[in-house]
């Protein structure tokens, strides 16, 4: 994977720490996770500007994901169903983990394992015709229940920040904001 994103739609504190970005300041650039196992990579050569620094977050995300209308509809249907289920369980604070792999031709796109093949989509209509991307998605951090402690956190943080920007909101508002944010970044 070249890029990893943890997206949830909130804005307060939703940026990667500076040390997790690459040295050149480009928060979009990552090296292959399996660089040591890649036969096309010289083990003695490392490029500091492309070392993996971590997972980037909402405020670091300054682009669109080019799924095309059909894949966009499929992904949004899945995320809407997942969000409805998590909301019915009183869960909030989950994220969409997005993995992005860039290649120069569709023949270079890897086949996802059977476990992930229904959650991976090739790019459609990417602005640079010489680059193709593979996007892999998964909902993560699904165990935060919105109980008394989280209700108090919402009240406290709402005194300091705009309530629309904080992560800790009731499950119904969280699900709505989550799906709206993801819909905005898909093309």
Describe it.
- It is built from three helices and five strands.
- Helix content is 26%, strand content 15%.
- The protein has a five-stranded mixed β-sheet with strand order 2-1-3-5-4, with helices on one face.
- The chain is of the alpha+beta class and 187 residues long.
Features:
single chain, 187 residues, alpha+beta, 5-stranded mixed beta sheet, 5 strands, 26% helix, elongated
Would you summarize the structure shown here?
The protein is of the alpha+beta class and 187 residues long. The protein is built from three helices and five strands, in the order ββαβββαα.
Mean pLDDT: 77
| Fraction in beta strands | 5-15%
Helices, by number, come to 3
Radius of gyration: 18 Å
Helix content: 25-40%
Low-confidence stretches: 19-52
What's the SSE pattern? EEHEEEHH
Please specify the SSE layout and strand pairing.
Layout: E1 3-7, E2 56-57, H1 68-88, E3 95-103, E4 120-122, E5 132-140, H2 148-160, H3 171-185
Parallel strand pairs: 1-2
Antiparallel strand pairs: 1-3, 3-5, 4-5
